Amino acid sequence: MVCNLSIMVSTKTRCPWLKLSNPRYVAYHDQEWGRPEHDDQMLFELLTLEGAQAGLSWETVLNKREHYRKVFMKFDPKKVAKFDQHKIKKLLQDAGIIRNRLKVESTVSNAKAFLNVQKEFGSFDRYIWSFVDHKPIQTKFSSMKDYPSKTLISDQISKDLKKRGFRFVGTTIMYAFMQAIGMTQDHAKTCYLHGKKFR
Hints:
The longest helix is centred in the middle third of the chain and has 21 residues, at 101-121. The chain has a single domain, classed as Endonuclease III, domain 1 (Orthogonal Bundle). Helix content is 49%, strand content 2%. It has helices at 23-31, 40-53, 58-71, 77-80, 85-91, 101-121, 124-129, 152-163, 171-180, and strands spanning 137-138, 184-185. The chain is built from nine helices and two strands; from the N terminus they run αααααααβααβ. The protein is an all-alpha fold. The protein is globular.
């Protein structure tokens, strides 16, 4: 999904974690976050970006997202899985991404693991959504203190992905991933998107 950055910050009430001063962040919240995602390439993108965020802010990653898409071949896992050490070395010199060797290398190894999941289950979408019986979980959070950093389901996903060779998939990262792809509908009760049925 390509977010429309021309979106206006109106009088609509949004989630308490959102930084309204960043139009890119507002567009992400309004047009993408929490909407059920089933496209495998987009799932690989979000899985990669959530891992890249570890120890940083989501805003930092979001601001670099378009460049990530460029250098990681639009997050096509088949192409990323073929990256060699020369390509990794080149990426580590690119200031447009987060230049952490472990994170960059994990993107390549995760692409290979991602392809294995696709082969086993038919799609990564079918695999990942099975953890919630293919139905989004609707929550009713009001303030920042209500949001958990992990859940039993994110624990299960993290454990299973690690067994399959994925890296940077800790339970906290997996809960953020669940939120991003709409497996858990975490728009706050005060947010205008709370309880909305997305197609």
